[in-house]
Amino acid sequence: MNLLQKFEYWGDRHHPKWLDIIRIALGIFLLYKGIDFLRNTSDLVSLMSLRSPFGSFLIILLGHYVTFAHILGGFFLTIGMFTRAACLIQIPILIGAIIFVNSSQDVLRPYSELFLSILILLLLIYFLIVGNGPLSVKFPEEEKKRSQK
Question: 20 near 133, Cβ under 8 Å?
Answer without folding.
Answer: yes
